[in-house]
Amino acid sequence: MLLTFLQTINDVDDLEANLVMDLARARRDVFNAEKALADCVVREHEVMANLSKHKSNISKQKLAKADVGIGHMRIAFKKYGFSHHGPGRVCKNHWDAITSWSS
Fold this sequence. Notes:
Layout lengths: L1 H79 L11 H10 L2
Helix pairs in contact: 1-2
């Protein structure tokens, strides 16, 4: 009877040890999954930042092109005596010259 009692204690100890190990493995799996998710979120943010930089560069290029167009318009206004403040009319030849510079 004593041998059976000791075997039962050992079996319970082994079962508890196995359950503790299973719990540790499950927690490790959860931590690994959390790390993988965090890595994906970081990657998503990196890609979003790159997309924002790309859009910013496109906007800068459009602004630079608009600035050049405005510069051409100012030169044409000075050259042909037009003013963007007044209600003057522009003849077709001058208008064609002005618009060809800004395109």
